[in-house]
Amino acid sequence: MKARYIACLALAAAAAWAQGPRVPQAGGRAGTRTPGVDMTRQTVVEGVISAVNIAYGAQYPSIEVNKTLIKVAQVWYLLDNDFELKQGDAVKLTAAPAANPADTYLHAVEIVKTASNAKIALRDAEGFPLWAGGNSQGRGPAGGPRAGSCNGGCIEAGSAATASGTVEQVAMGAGIQHPSLVLKLDDGTLLTVRIGPERTLLGNDFELARGEKAEVKYAQASGCDELVALEITNAAGVRLVLRGENGFPVWN
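Below the sequence we write its predicted structure tokens.
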């Protein structure tokens, strides 16, 4: 089971790595590099995500809102900033059309999840992607808050709790989401918490196998019904810290 779980995570991590590099490229704006989008024609799209399309390889994932296809960002950038997108999420996007007329997609500049007011900046004021050099350290167009910085708090105050039980399932994320842990408590209750990027588990040689004991410290995420793991201790006694006391992810 451990081998099967690690293999599953490895495949998912490889897919995320295929979306692109995690570090700024040297000389990000040297030469004739252009942003690829027309920032003078920005528009706002507001509605519910009806589809999340993930194309592996050198393509950006896209979402569909109000029958409009919008390219977002590479999967690793979204998840590294603890920003998830799934079908049914209500969002408000600022987007710009591509400079190339052959590209009929809109490209997201900023996304706000209206239920929680969680926000992520994807491009700077010139339209350059924040994950690909230049001003790409997860900061907003004018040196603003870091993407995924959980302004106002990532978790509900006083909601932190600890539970022990048996690992029932580790489910891989649907859409652009982190995997989740399902823990069966001693009274038979199933507790489901979001974990963190697969690479965080793999990088720390951290295993969660079905049927083994685990302890999780978790809290209520702000503005939604989800629970998020702050730290997990597995059957081997290894403790993995995922988020700080305010819910801010430690992998950033």
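The mean pLDDT is 80.
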